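Hey, weird one. I pasted the MPN domain-containing protein sequence into the form twice and got a warning about non-standard characters only the second time. First submission, copied straight from the form history:
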Amino acid sequence: MIKPRSPTELGEQATISVDPNIPIRLYFRSADLLLKQARVYKLEKDLEHAYVLYMKYTNLGLTELPKHPSYKNAENKKSLKTLNKNCLEALESLETMKPALEKAYNSYIKKIYDARKAEQDASIAQQTTLWQSQQQKHSADMSNGSDDWNLQDALKGVVGVGYNEGQQFTYHAQQQQIDTPPHLPPKPSNLPILPPKYQYPAIKGPHFPQRSKWMTEKPSTERGEPLRKMLLPEGIHAKFLSIAQKNTNNKIETCGILAGTLKNNVLKITTLIIPKQTGTSDTCTTENEEDLFDIQDKHDLLTFGWIHTHPTQSCFLSSVDLHTHCSYQLMLPEAIAIVCAPAQSPNFGIFRLTDPPGLDIISNCKKAPAFHPHPDLPIYTSAENGSHVTTADYYFEVLDLRDKK
């Protein structure tokens, strides 16, 4: 049985902070991504995930983002208007979901309390039966003229009754207290007959693993935060390489955006978007980001990461790549960076920043120029082979925006 989380516990998972050195436009995109995910979870009746995401959205929009130095800039007026409008939606959703979450939590607590009480009542009844059996035996022995019976001998082996050889034992029926067997939970000092509106206490047993424990049995970050499963179409890197072939021949990098849908707590990459861009032998920069955002909104797509070529380098994340990917992973912990190095071996890799130390190191790094060294630590890692990314054979769409007028 998985313990439901109360609104208070869920609220503790919704902490979010704003780095003044990160462009505010990334936070606007992050807010949009939070809201879209929250809507999906709410439609799927996954209220816990929806509650956390809506709470993150309101914390970001109403509390944290106003601290950003660019918050009041004129160019942000439209984005702030949208953000404030959506905060109203988020607050209304939180209010409607809260009673249902409290009901589920209180119902769980009641079941656990009732189970505890039933178990302890059964234990008491069992021990009472044992005691009555010994009493009947004693009565029978007395009827047969036996005069060497004593209760201490008779109750040897009965759980909860102590025995000390040679010790005088005095029994008072009304004062006898049989302890709860050690394998059962301790008997509460008061077991009231529950009135209809009784407020059930937050008792501990029986033992269930804490959510943080059982969640780490699934893919997780280095700090133990759970990562949702992500599906990646098997042929996506081959298709991307064919699209990038002309640039690759000219030793120019090409990049694409990995977008998709969220369903049943699984992130599925369904679309490869090729944005307008400029490239060199070791860099690639997207252009006209508004076109990219508009097409994602039109197709109701979420951003799950990016893919790019290394026509002259091996398969790794350069310092520029690390900073580029950081902006994706700050928005979505599961975000991935795929590197295709067709002339090298290995020629393909799926990566994410470690958390910690990678995400913290890169998000706080303000070094210049673009290519610069970072601490000799495990800043990034593979997202394959037992991590959260799984490849599968299914259809995906390609949207090439470079030809868009």
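That's the output from the first submission. The warning seems to come from a hidden character in my clipboard, not from the data itself. The radius of gyration is 31 Å.
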